[in-house]
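Hello,

Our lab assistant flagged a job as stuck in the queue for most of the afternoon. It eventually completed. Since we weren't sure the result was trustworthy after the delay, we are filing this so someone can double-check. Below is the sequence as submitted and the structure that was eventually returned. Let us know if re-running is recommended.
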Amino acid sequence: MALGASPVLVRRMESLFHALFFLIILLYVMSAAWCTATAAAGIKQAASDRAALLSFKSLIDDDPFGALLSWNNGSLHYCRWRGVSCGRRHPNRVTALDLKSLRLTGLVSPAVANLTFIRRIDLSDNMLGGRIPEEFGSLRRLRYLNLSVNSLRGTIPSSLGNCSNLQLLNLRDNKLDGEIPPTLSSLSGLRELMLRQNMLQGTIPSNLTQCQELQVVDLSNNFLTEEIPPELGYLSRLISLTLSYNNLTGAIPATLGNLAQLQNLDLKFNSLSGSIPDSLGNLSSLIYLSFGKNNLSGPMPPSFGSLPSLNMLEIQQNSLTGTIPSTLTNLSSLSQLSLAVNNLHGEIPHFAELPVLSFLDCTSNHLLGTIPISLGRLSSLEYLLLGMNNLTGEIPSSLYNLSSLKSLELFENQLEGTLPSNIGNALPNLQVLSMGINQLGGRIPASLSNASGLNELELLANAFRGTIPPSLGALQSLLWLQLAGNRLEARKPSDWSFITALTNCTSLRALQLQDNLLQGMMPKSIVNLSTSLNYLSLAKNQISGIIPAEIEKFINLTYLDMSVNDFRGTIPIEISHLWQLQYLDLSNNMLSGEIPLTLGNLTRMDKLRLSSNEFEGAIPRTLSSMLMLELLNLSNNRLSGTIPKEVLSISSLANFLDLSHNLLNNSLPLEVGNLINVGELDLSNNKLSGEIPDTIGKCTILEILHLENNLFQGSIPSSISNLRGLKELDLSKNFYSGQIPASLDELPDLRNLNLSFNSFEGRVPMKGVFKNASEVSLIGNPKLCGGIPELHLLKCTSEAFAAKHHSDYKLKII
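-- returned structure --
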């Protein structure tokens, strides 16, 4: 019998084959369906990315460079649009949006958050406004977010803490406000956090220490307050920490000394107090250290000498005490050292072992002794600033070996000696030479002209003598020439040749020659000086002649002082063309004629002094156009007529108004009450008459009031008691009558009261200023009585008053 398969087995095999065939068909159908679904999803997601980009474009108001012109081009795939990048594994998904520095304006669309594959967004350096979309918090793949240098407002979205892969967050230079979200601590991979130049408030979140990958933190130029969290000292990877220009208080945390990799520590311009932690000497990688403009006190830590990489050390404008640590001479990499404006004392260390030191600033301390000769070995030194100390002796000749020196500032010390005749040859790169307020003498070296880049020469308040060298005219970069307060001479016309030479200095802005021995006629060439000149002072010399009309050429002049000379003639009308003028002093000359009405055109005038001349006529009402005028002095002239009420209505007058020693007459206008900001008012030695207006009580800022030697009469107005800040009151030599107001003894600051030579009568108060005979003068008022014994007045007896009263009563009955 032939062998054959069992019918049952055959049926089972057929069933299995059918099932397998069905399964294959099912898998094929499912695979096709999955591919179709995947393709559909891809198409849908691609459409979503495209829509998100178009939404971004729709909120852009201006695109001056046409950066987005290619967007929405039907023939160009969106992955090829400018600024758009797509992935390799997912070629239709946007992974980067880079549109920096294109001057785009408008808003940032929340639809950008639909770009779920995006890793990088850079919209920096544009003009985008509005808020940062809260929806950005859903971008879990985002690693780089740079929205810096825009005009974004509002708060930083707390949702950004959900961007778990974020490594860089740069929102600097915007207008963001509110607090730094504590949720940023969730960004465990964050390496750079830059939020500077915003309007952020509140405190620095202490939980930022959870971001252990942080390398750069910049929170500067905000309004952050309270203390620096000590926890920041545990960010072990930190390379740069910048917290400058905030309102931070408290001490510098000693824990910052743990940051072994820190290269930059910038805490300047805050309100930090206390001493500098010695632990900062452990920061062996530190390159830049700035604590400038705080309230730090105590000595400088000697441990700073253990910072081998330190290149810049700035601790200026604090309250540091003690001496400059000698250990600083170990800092072989140091190029800049600024210790200015502290309370450091002692001598200047020998910094000769600092081969790359280029900037040394110890200005405004209490340093004493001589300038170390060894400083002359600092061959890289470009800036040596030692002004405003107590340094003595001569300037070491070794300093003139520093041929790289650009700025040498030794002003306000007690240095003596002379400047070497070859200084300009020795220091050819000099740009600033400031030696003012010392005891230097000799002649000004003509060789200074060889320092062709010199832009500031300041030698004021010394004892330099001789003539001013005309060679200074070769300094074509000269901006500031300050030679005031010396013994410089000009006795004959040729001595004035330096003025003609200076006409070559076409950028000259300030010329200070006051308080010297310059004599004779001012050369006509002075009007050919640079039209950039904004400061000209010839005061306190013996210069004669007239003020030239050509002075109108100095169209940028803001300060003009020709006082205390021998100028004659009138004020040229052309001076009224100096529209920028803020300060004009022509006092103490022999000028005559009337004050030009056109002076009122100088609407920026701040201080006007024309006193001690021979001006006559009326005070110009046009002066009331000087709406910024704070000080007006027309005293000691021959001015006549009524005080213009318009002048008394200049609301900006604040320092003082002095019209004394003139021939002004009639009554004092009621408008005197408009001088509500004036601190000193002097109308003495005129011919003013009538009563003091009651409106004087409105001048509540007054501290000094002089009305003596006039023709005033009547009683002292009660409103004068409103002048609570009054320190000095002189009403002497008038015709006042009646009793002295008791309210005068209630003026708390009054220390000088002169009521002499009037017709006051009755009892003298005994409180306030009247308690001290050295502070009050009452002579020439024979009807006064009482007061303290030191005033030597008659007693006010009750019997005398009673007798007088009884006599008057009897007369009435008769």
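-- support follow-up --
The delay was a queue issue, not a problem with the job. The result is valid. Helices lie at 7-58, 423-426, 497-502, 798-813. DSSP finds four helices and 57 strands in the chain.
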